[in-house]
Write a sequence for this structure.
């Protein structure tokens, strides 16, 4: 089993299923983000993103303060992926040490902006969506993310609506 298959089968898809309706956009964006970071949960890039999906501490707080705070049931499910003690001590550390929690936050960030989802086979749109959430405009990052997403988008099911 490849690292990509393991990440999809044991992290991304089970978390997406637990949080609600899975969607190809979740698979493509999160796998693309992880591929970009070379599956290194300790990668430190210029974007200051944490963990396998490169979530910034700012986005982490925004997801909690501006989305999950208004959906207690979903917040409880996301919190369920975090460790009991460490989350209370350093919630951002959970993004680095806990891939399922990182996936739950990333999926929640994407659900938060669901009306702006492009079609699953739109690599340009997916690149813009994820980079806008991370507040990254650096051309080299955008080019690398697009390159990671393009093959995933080619394999995306055709005819699926954006949401």
């Amino acid at each position: 089993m490849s690292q990509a298959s393991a990440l999809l089968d044991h992290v991304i898809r089970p978390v997406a299923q637990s949080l609600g309706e899975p969607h190809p956009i979740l698979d493509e964006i999160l796998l693309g983000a992880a591929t970009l970071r070379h599956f290194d949960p300790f990668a430190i890039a210029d974007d200051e993103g944490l963990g396998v999906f490169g979530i910034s501490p700012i986005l982490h707080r925004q997801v909690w303060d501006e989305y999950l705070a208004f959906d207690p049931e979903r917040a409880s499910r996301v919190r369920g992926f975090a460790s009991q003690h460490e989350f209370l001590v350093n919630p951002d550390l959970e993004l680095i040490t806990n891939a399922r929690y990182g996936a739950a936050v990333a999926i929640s960030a994407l659900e938060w902006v669901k009306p702006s989802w492009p079609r699953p086979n739109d690599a340009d749109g997916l690149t813009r969506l994820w980079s806008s959430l991370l507040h990254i405009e650096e051309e080299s990052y955008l080019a690398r993310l697009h390159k990671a997403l393009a093959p995933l988008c080619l394999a995306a099911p055709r005819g699926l609506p954006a949401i």
User: Anything to note?
Assistant: Residues 68 and 76 are 9 Å apart (CA to CA). The first helix runs from residue 3 to 19. The chain is about 65% helix and 0% strand.
